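As described in the Methods, two query proteins were run sequentially through the folding procedure within a single session, without resetting any intermediate state between them. The first query and its resulting structure tokens are shown here.
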Amino acid sequence: MKTAVVIDSTAYIPKEVREKYHIHMIPLNVIIGNEAYREEIDLTADDFYEEIKKADKLPTTSQPSIGQFAELFEELSKEYDAVISVHLSSGISGTYMGAISAGEMVEELEVYAFDSEISCMVQGFYAIEAAQMALDGKEPAEIITRLDEMKKTIQAYFMVDDLSNLQRGGRLSSAQALIGSLLQVKPLLQFENKVIVPFEKIRTRKKAMKRIVELLTKATVGDGQYKAVIIHAKREEEARQWRDEIQAGLSNVEFDIGYFGPVIGTHLGEGAMGLGWYKVK
């Protein structure tokens, strides 16, 4: 059985990596003013952060239509027997459900939708793993089993400079945003039960980043090899410096650099930083 892998754009897997592993991408949209952009196609992350500085109000975002999914699946059915379709958490977007609905419409293809329960390059870890297994000829059921196994060790934490975007976008309650603003805290956030929730309240950016490293170190101590990704919202130099600092003390962790693109960046804002990881073996 020949299996394709589909990812939505919020995984922010670089184009060259998608091409290497034959990963197909379906974009979400960000609307700035009266213009709609397909992220990773019409609008890069860097361009997005420049555009929103000039915008009068916060951009909005939208998921792919079921028709877009169906069109992609129909095209893939000409070459593939099955699709593993990996998507951002169903708790913050209907993208995963859209993939399920479209899969039911395309009879020529077996569609296995997978809810990553997270986003960004941590979500991308699932797609890359699935794509490598598909290239190795593994069956869809075996790939899904492996993704479920990965989910047991995947962790991610992130911090934002300003909670207002999350609150305005409906991803965090008004009360939580107000408390954070009044206390001038840099709350650590995480995905729990598919939604974004506060993990700890920390006073400064430096201390918040230090706390994330403590969590990574605790999770990866002992036997085992891990992959990790530092994710930034237009703070690439800071992300690289942070990686170099952490890497020196964790020889069993392989690090990469990722980014918060337009759709996720709309809700987190410029300056957000995150770190996610999983156990490879």
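Immediately afterward, the second query was submitted; its sequence and tokens are:
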Amino acid sequence: MNEEYDVIVLGTGLTECILSGIMSVNGKKVLHMDRNPYYGGESASITPLEDLYKRFKIPGAPPASMGRGRDWNVDLIPKFLMANGLMGLFEKRRFRKFLVYVANFDEKDPRTFEGIDPKKTAMREVYKKFDLGQDVIDFTGHALALYRTDDYLDQPCCETINRIKLYSESLARYGKSPYLYPLYGLGELPQGFARLSAIYGGTYMLNKPIEEIIVQNGKVIGVKSEGEVARCKQLICDPSYVTDRVEKVGQVIRVICILSHPIKNTSDANSCQIIIPQNQVNRKSDIYVCMISSAHNVAAQGKYIAIVSTTVETKEPEKEIRPALELLEPIEQKFVSISDLLVPKDLGTESQIFISRTYDATTHFETTCDDIKDIYKRMTGSEFDFEEMKRKKNDIYGED
């Protein structure tokens, strides 16, 4: 361990593993360590089911009706999206016209604007032009464009239109959902990027206690573990490794629910998501419900896992999610957690310590991807270029 690295990464959450893979592909010498014996960190998948009971201090063992414990892989923080909307006949016609406009929209071709200035016209005015009702606006802004508040309504419409266009094109690719979800849970994703990093020369060490992050003259120079020091030029880590360098900006409540039935009124879907826009429950934040099942190799046969999450706004968080829990009844078992939302106090450009944000209440990767791209830009001074990353990979493996 007494070596010098370009980058040391602490923590194996998805953000840290993706950045580790990216830096390795970029030719950086990377050392990746975690105090835990497993991948995933805060976003781990828990197996067997008995471990989930222990983690949440639920007394006793899971009942026999829940099947074998090894059949369960429960995400602590799920990230995916499927959306369904219901609307009347005339509303559907107006919404279809809007979607056709979005599909044809090209910010580089004024002929597709239809009198809308994408850099000046507010999204509120675009909705008005197509005569869309409030329920459809809520659905479009929060389930398709994936905004968490309504602030976007008074911003130039270009970004929102492009977000909806991305959703529509993603949906068209597979037909049922614009999103993908890995079998055996999201814990597979950090491991996949860890393998990518290892292929490009990255070194991984799990179950490694971190004794000290060494800083000299305000800049990181290394990490001490079990009496040895690994030197580095840059450090990436999750907030748990640098509690003095982060601040709390809120809380998230998450409730994992085990069900023996699909969610009502979803056509017995084996996976789905419901987004309850804040306007419809007199809140400032949306409530998210996502459901997965044995079809994804995350639960015993005939069982479903639904996870409810939202940003805490009151002193009674469990009351805040009651509208979502009512959709899931009857619930066999609940696992409730309340987590702090932590963000770095500074950009890290002086100390070269780059800290990820804790995962928010959303159940899609939008904000996680934003965090990854933001950290990459602060570390390298340039925007992340996915096409360039693919070219580097193909130069070595000759893949398409």
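The first helix runs from residue 14 to 25. We note this only descriptively and draw no conclusion about the first query from it.
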